[in-house]
Amino acid sequence: MENSEGVKIESTVVTEEPLISALDIALFVVIITVAYFWYFKRDKQSSSSEKKPYTIQPSSLSSIEQTSNSSFIKKLKSTGRSLVVFYGSQTGTAEEFAGRIAKEGARYKMKGMVADPEECDMADLVEMKEIQKSLAIFCIATYGEGDPTDNAMDFYEWLQNGDADLEGLNYAVFGLGNKTYEHYNEIAIYIDQRLEELGATRVHEIGLGDDDANIEDDFVSWKEKLWESVCSHYGIEETGEESNIRQYKLVDCSEVLPERIFSGEISRLKSYENQRFPFDVKNPYLSKIAVNRELHKSGDRSCMHIEFDIDGSKMRYDTGDHVAVYPKNSSELVDKIGELLNADLDAVFSLLNTDEESSKKHPFPCPCTYRTALTYYLDITSNPRTHIMKELIEYASDPKDQEKLKLMASSTPEGKKEFHEWILRDNRNIVHILEDLPSVKPDLDHLCELLPRLQCRYYSISSSPKVYPKSIHITAVLVNYTTPTNRVNKGVATNLLAQLIPTNDELPQPTIPIYIRRSQFRLPPKSQAPIIMIGPGTGLAPFRGFIQERDYARKEGREIGEMVLYFGCRKKDEDFIYENELQEYVANGTLTKLHLAFSRDQPEKKYVTHLLEQNADELWNIIGEKSGHLYVCGDARSMAKDVHSIIVKVVMEKGQMTNSQALNYVKKMEQQKRYSADVWS
């Protein structure tokens, strides 16, 4: 037989009656089992009852959705707001503009909210019509080769692939772009047109900001006309109330334990002490500087070759990618702010959003010291925008300083002229303003709220992972220049990098936070494809990686196509960077031709564009007859534009085409990824 637990019991023959019969044993086991289950079930229920207040037990999927933070519509409704301003931002400018619009909404009885589309369910736009006199504004930057910013990518794809009925949605769009790039404000223009196609109502015409000129002026001019259109559309009037309301409130954190205080981390507390893969914009890798050497042979300028050690990080990069470097401001400038404002830079504080519904609780990692905020989190070297001038007015005790700030904050022709000359032309940063307007003494916490975030700097990677899998190389010119006020402005990142010199002893090596940004700037899939590379100055950087990769393939016995490089600099004996490497690649056959232009080694200046025009036959042979690839890296404002014009001209003449046909041919090359540019302005 078997007992209640399924264990087989064998019978035995005995000569005496047992004290306890088999039936007694069975009954005993049953009683014990029942008692066991009754006791532990009761205990489990009791435990569950005690823990109930600390657990979330959704009754259905819909209840989860109802409490989701991604529903901006519910936030608008629950807080009595009618204005939402979305931003697509890569460097923080679009986010800043969005905040300024939302803040000004109060002057028109439109309580506003700033929203990151990446954190929102953008399908909820169809419900905007349920809110009376509602308005959605989009501040959208175009990034890279006509791409949406990272945080706007999902929204962009939703617009492309969806067919939502947006009738009843009122909207306006402001785009942030740069005219030196081919795809000027492409994403903002698309969003503006697509919203209308889906049935939404455009309240005000799209604004296009040009960062190559004066994007602040573009934005302010558009914003003023925006509110005129809003008043007309909704039949409302400006209240006249000033909107200088603090978005964040100061919290004293002097009692916070040291281990809970941020010291420069981008997102996660102690992330540099406890590194975790994967590494990205919010979680950079603290890389050691393995090599830092000078590339220029003489002269008063400096160009650095720097190698970041990524051994053991699990980071992978491809030839043509970019590396982002997180800089920090100089201690000299930081100390100067503390001195000018008579502030204790080592006081620990936090800035807490006064809008409890906002997903952004702090403007930067908090709590931290003022010194940390000014060193790692805030941009103190760029030209402040007009809204900062406006906020500083109340802190000026001298009437003359007050009037100057009021003028620069205004949108009058005189005000714009003064702002352009005194701030932009003279290249003043916040430190210079506080020095030159000595009666202006803002509260340091308010200044920290106003200043934009310090952004990482991107560099084209100048190495190939095939040859250097454990390190990332960059080529960077040290930035130092004298302003019209006889001050020396220094590049934040390059001057920091110049100080990070590795040692040969057992001392800790210098480190800096980095992460890899993927690029579309790629070698052809087939190593046999012929290519032309045009990269004067540090524009050579990605091509050094290209050449290394093709050289690696050649040494493996693979066939490689023609590689033609156009390089230019001022003087051969001064700033011909990587000269020995390039000559070696020519000697071993990896680099088919090396065309050099030294602009100041002869009376008449000679540039790579001159060489391109001289070598029209070679150019057409590769991009026309052999369907090769052409790459450009460097200055977008003049060099890249000149190269494009020359390419079109060569295609016209050698390909026997009209101007229109040549333009279409070059456009098709771009679409086929046979004409690629990695440029900056």
From TrEMBL:
<feature type="domain" description="Flavodoxin-like">
    <location>
        <begin position="83"/>
        <end position="227"/>
    </location>
</feature>
<dbReference type="InterPro" id="IPR017927">
    <property type="entry name" value="FAD-bd_FR_type"/>
</dbReference>
<feature type="domain" description="FAD-binding FR-type">
    <location>
        <begin position="282"/>
        <end position="524"/>
    </location>
</feature>
<feature type="binding site">
    <location>
        <begin position="599"/>
        <end position="600"/>
    </location>
    <ligand>
        <name>NADP(+)</name>
    </ligand>
</feature>
<keyword id="KW-1133">Transmembrane helix</keyword>
<keyword id="KW-0285">Flavoprotein</keyword>
<feature type="binding site">
    <location>
        <begin position="605"/>
        <end position="609"/>
    </location>
    <ligand>
        <name>NADP(+)</name>
    </ligand>
</feature>
<dbReference type="InterPro" id="IPR003097">
    <property type="entry name" value="CysJ-like_FAD-binding"/>
</dbReference>
<dbReference type="GO" id="GO:0050661">
    <property type="term" value="F:NADP binding"/>
</dbReference>
<keyword id="KW-0274">FAD</keyword>
<dbReference type="Pfam" id="PF00258">
    <property type="entry name" value="Flavodoxin_1"/>
</dbReference>
<feature type="binding site">
    <location>
        <begin position="141"/>
        <end position="144"/>
    </location>
    <ligand>
        <name>FMN</name>
    </ligand>
</feature>
<feature type="binding site">
    <location>
        <begin position="491"/>
        <end position="494"/>
    </location>
    <ligand>
        <name>FAD</name>
    </ligand>
</feature>
<dbReference type="Pfam" id="PF00667">
    <property type="entry name" value="FAD_binding_1"/>
</dbReference>
<dbReference type="InterPro" id="IPR029039">
    <property type="entry name" value="Flavoprotein-like_sf"/>
</dbReference>
<dbReference type="GO" id="GO:0010181">
    <property type="term" value="F:FMN binding"/>
</dbReference>
<dbReference type="InterPro" id="IPR001094">
    <property type="entry name" value="Flavdoxin-like"/>
</dbReference>
<keyword id="KW-0521">NADP</keyword>
<feature type="binding site">
    <location>
        <begin position="457"/>
        <end position="460"/>
    </location>
    <ligand>
        <name>FAD</name>
    </ligand>
</feature>
<comment type="similarity">
    <text>In the N-terminal section; belongs to the flavodoxin family.</text>
</comment>
<feature type="binding site">
    <location>
        <position position="538"/>
    </location>
    <ligand>
        <name>NADP(+)</name>
    </ligand>
</feature>
<keyword id="KW-0560">Oxidoreductase</keyword>
<dbReference type="InterPro" id="IPR008254">
    <property type="entry name" value="Flavodoxin/NO_synth"/>
</dbReference>
<dbReference type="GO" id="GO:0050660">
    <property type="term" value="F:flavin adenine dinucleotide binding"/>
</dbReference>
<dbReference type="GO" id="GO:0005789">
    <property type="term" value="C:endoplasmic reticulum membrane"/>
</dbReference>
<keyword id="KW-0472">Membrane</keyword>
<feature type="binding site">
    <location>
        <position position="680"/>
    </location>
    <ligand>
        <name>FAD</name>
    </ligand>
</feature>
<dbReference type="GO" id="GO:0003958">
    <property type="term" value="F:NADPH-hemoprotein reductase activity"/>
</dbReference>
<dbReference type="InterPro" id="IPR001709">
    <property type="entry name" value="Flavoprot_Pyr_Nucl_cyt_Rdtase"/>
</dbReference>
<feature type="binding site">
    <location>
        <begin position="176"/>
        <end position="185"/>
    </location>
    <ligand>
        <name>FMN</name>
    </ligand>
</feature>
<feature type="transmembrane region" description="Helical">
    <location>
        <begin position="20"/>
        <end position="39"/>
    </location>
</feature>
<dbReference type="InterPro" id="IPR023173">
    <property type="entry name" value="NADPH_Cyt_P450_Rdtase_alpha"/>
</dbReference>
<dbReference type="InterPro" id="IPR017938">
    <property type="entry name" value="Riboflavin_synthase-like_b-brl"/>
</dbReference>
<protein>
    <recommendedName>
        <fullName>NADPH--cytochrome P450 reductase</fullName>
        <ecNumber>1.6.2.4</ecNumber>
    </recommendedName>
</protein>
<feature type="binding site">
    <location>
        <begin position="475"/>
        <end position="477"/>
    </location>
    <ligand>
        <name>FAD</name>
    </ligand>
</feature>
<feature type="binding site">
    <location>
        <position position="211"/>
    </location>
    <ligand>
        <name>FMN</name>
    </ligand>
</feature>
<feature type="binding site">
    <location>
        <position position="301"/>
    </location>
    <ligand>
        <name>NADP(+)</name>
    </ligand>
</feature>
<feature type="binding site">
    <location>
        <position position="642"/>
    </location>
    <ligand>
        <name>NADP(+)</name>
    </ligand>
</feature>
<feature type="binding site">
    <location>
        <position position="481"/>
    </location>
    <ligand>
        <name>FAD</name>
    </ligand>
</feature>
<dbReference type="Pfam" id="PF00175">
    <property type="entry name" value="NAD_binding_1"/>
</dbReference>
<keyword id="KW-0256">Endoplasmic reticulum</keyword>
<keyword id="KW-0812">Transmembrane</keyword>
